Amino acid sequence: MNVGCVILACTLLVGASSGSKAGQPLKPLCRPGFSQNFYTVIVSRDVLHGQSILKDTTLSSERVKFEDCQRSREVGFVSSDPYFSVRPDGTVYAEQEVANLSEPVQFMVTARGLHDPHIWETTVKLALAGHPHPLPLTKVGIEEMLSRVWESQPRVIKFPRKHQRGSSVNGLRRQKRDWVIPPINVPENSRGPFPHMLVRIRSDQDKDVGIRYSITGAGADQPPSGIYNIDPISGNMFVTQPLDREERASFHLRAHAVDMNGNQVENPIDLYIYVIDMNDNRPEFQNQVYNGSVAEGSKPGSSVMQVTATDSDDSTTANGMVRYRILSQSPHSPIPNMFTINSETGDIVTVAAGLDREKVSQYTIIVQATDMEGNLNFGLSNTATALISITDINDNPPELTVRTFSGEVPENKVNVVVTNLTVVDRDQPHSPNWNAVYRIVSGDPSGHFTIRTNPITNEGMLTVVKPVDFEMNRAFMLTVVVSNQAHLASGIQSSLQSTAGVTISVQDVNEPPVFPVNPKMIRFEEGVPAGTTLTVFAAQDPDHFIHQIVRYSKLSDPANWLKINRTNGQITTMALLDRESIYVKNNVYEATFLAFDNGSPQASGTGTLQIYLIDVNDNAPVLIPREAQVCERARPNSRINITASDADADPNVGPFVFELPSFPSSVRRNWTISRLSGDYAQLRLRIPYLDAGMYEIPIIVSDSGNPPLSNRSVIRVKVCPCDDNGDCSATGAVAAAGLGTGAIIAILICIIVLLSMVLLFVVWMKRREKERQAKPLLIDPEDDVRDNILKYDEEGGGEEDQDYDLSQLQQPESLDHIINKPAGVRRVDERPVITESQYPVRPSLPHPGDIGDFINDGLRAADNDPTAPPYDSLLVFDYEGSGSTAGSVSSLNSTSSGDQDYDYLNDWGPRFKKLADLYGGGDDD
């Protein structure tokens, strides 16, 4: 059956010019390219039925003009389907008679500048009007589509011929415009067999010379290399493996023709290979689980959330066009279809009212994404889960569980919970829609109670904040209301159960006695005698309904002036009340008393009594200062300012009266006093000169009391000579201290006598020393015991004591270093450079009886000899060693050696005679 010609108008938009004239609005930036990436054309059955087509015949009046941004660009259009072509004006037409259009036809249109490497692509899809669209693609249909794509390729691609024609004017020749090489379309994921021939490259000069063909570019000799190759002799171009459009959608190769010597015989031509997309990728959700929320009670059409899926296939074709739908909803309450989804955007919205969080708090939605524009027959699908949380609104007012609550509270207690008010609220726990707020609306005008909300249980804790009195109120009837922290949602009415009554019973307790006036202030004059009744300080028992006895005792009385009657609280003095006492502060004396009842348990209260003591004139003034100083000669500045102090208070103090007494008469004769003000007076010399000394001047001071009190005070005035500045001189200060001239002379005489006695004592000592030195010695110098003293270098403290200089213990061999030493401080262990003392001379044949006298005389001479060692010095050594390993001499046992012969002691001379007599056993003399 013959089918008529179809003319399709496809929009090829490049945009407007990028420039603009002055004063005109700017136009959008021009972007060359097709207006759409995918065109779907529905062909009317009436147009095609029973009509034959003529080649290059147009039956449509619809036409879109192609507009280039540069206005000079020449664009050529190429169709991938040999049955359809595109004219330069963008019109798609049938190349030959179409035998059958019972199935959709899809092909690609490529636009390319003739002298420009830019390429634009679009897809055209033809479908018969009234036919189901899109048609389901079975396996056979897909293979058929692939075969059609393979078969639609141009069989031979020739190198363009170069046509030249002469010019009659200047003989110049111009080259004819080259033909546009149509693109080569290769379907992705083809099963082969491979290598599969795509096209043959041929040159018209292959008849004259031997031609060798080659291809270059990405996919041939550049990465990814090896996908395309060409037979160099025949020019057949092959694809060697399946292609994946998602990896690479197009290839740009260049075909070359050279002779056997490698010389270029044709200009290289550009080959564009496009990978035709197949639906081989499922839509993929960005998340497997989506979380959204919508408020309960929302109206239909309220936005909930959006899910998004992407498809790696070409989004300009149906392969990559994703559509969404909801597969299931759980739970189905209140209806199975509470939500709908926008098939193109993935936006989920509500479609019905009735969302109630208290019934269903969360919905689970299974969403499906399908490509091929959602066609379930041949589209690929994927699913995701959408969790929709129903957010709470305050659509449930709180409800008190009962209409009446009751409780008890003891009187005079605070911060005691009377009762707990329980409430029920179905809104979201621990949210402002659930948190309860309680208010007392009646029954508590004095504000004794308040209601605090328990944040955990939401209960209302009715608490006493102000003490209640059983004698005043035995019970309370309160009315409370409860509401939420947040306002109720619009249209929700509060229930009557939000109001309840509370009955509170007050429990009577034994209250302590209370002093009606506390503290109590009374006024009395100081000095009232002991036993005076001041007041009755009585307390009252608040328990009017119980008869109890109140007793009193003293709790605090710092000065111990008061006592209280135990029965009636009468206050009586025990001593004089003195306003000037240290226990009185600001004329007030405080005492504390205790009142207690005989209840069970016993209760007690305290009261403070304040006694304001009125001052009486019971203290005489005292003169200030008590000591002063003036010059012995009357000067203008030789005056003494005096005043007085009085322990009393006004008006029993100043102004004071100062006067000199009549006796002794010398006071008024030598001194005078004048009043400066009410509290001050001035004392000065009446006579021009007064001997230096200390004077005691009596002055009579009187206060202004009624009657006034006087006091005779004495001021000690020191009169002394003064310098030009009016200051006492040093001599004058001594004289004025109370010592007369005779006393000073006596002190000087005593000092002279004492110095004379010291001088006589020194003279006597020197004389005695000379007499002692002139006395002869009792022994002969030859027998001087000092000549028999053997000096040893050192004996040390043992083997470990070898590092000490013991030369200080030795007597100097000569006195030259001492004699030549300059005057000044000498070492105390050096021998003095003075004449040696004379020791007694020993007779040639002394009698044994004279030996004792001789020794005593020598001892006295040595004691008084300053030249004898150790010269009044004591040498101190820090360490003498730990001792010799040889053991102590005292450890020897004298009896261990048997009898010892001591006869040799007789040969040692008379000095050892005594030892010889004791141990030697010789004859007695």
TrEMBL record:
Superkingdom per UniProt: Eukaryota
Gene3D superfamilies membership: Cadherins, TCF3-CBD (Catenin binding domain)
Species name: Seriola dumerili (Greater amberjack)
Residue ranges, annotated region (Disordered): 296-315
TM helices/strands, residue ranges: 743-765
Single Gene Ontology MF annotation: cadherin binding
Topology with respect to the bilayer: Single-pass type I membrane protein
Signal peptide segment: 1-22
Pfam family, one: CADH_Y-type_LIR
Entry's localization field: Cell junction, Adherens junction; Cell membrane
Protein name listed in UniProt: Cadherin-4
InterPro entries xref list: Cadherin (IPR039808), Cadherin-like_dom (IPR002126), Cadherin-like_sf (IPR015919), Cadherin_CS (IPR020894), Cadherin_pro_dom (IPR014868), Cadherin_Y-type_LIR (IPR000233), Catenin-bd_sf (IPR027397)
Gene Ontology process terms (BP): adherens junction organization; calcium-dependent cell-cell adhesion via plasma membrane cell adhesion molecules; cell migration involved in gastrulation; cell morphogenesis; cell-cell adhesion mediated by cadherin; cell-cell junction assembly; convergent extension involved in gastrulation; cranial nerve development
CDD domains, sorted: Cadherin_repeat
Keyword Lipoprotein: no
Keyword Transmembrane: yes
SMART domains to which the protein is assigned, alphabetical: CA, Cadherin_pro
Chain's role: Cadherins are calcium-dependent cell adhesion proteins.
Record-annotated Cadherin domain positions: 178-285, 286-400, 401-515, 516-623, 622-729
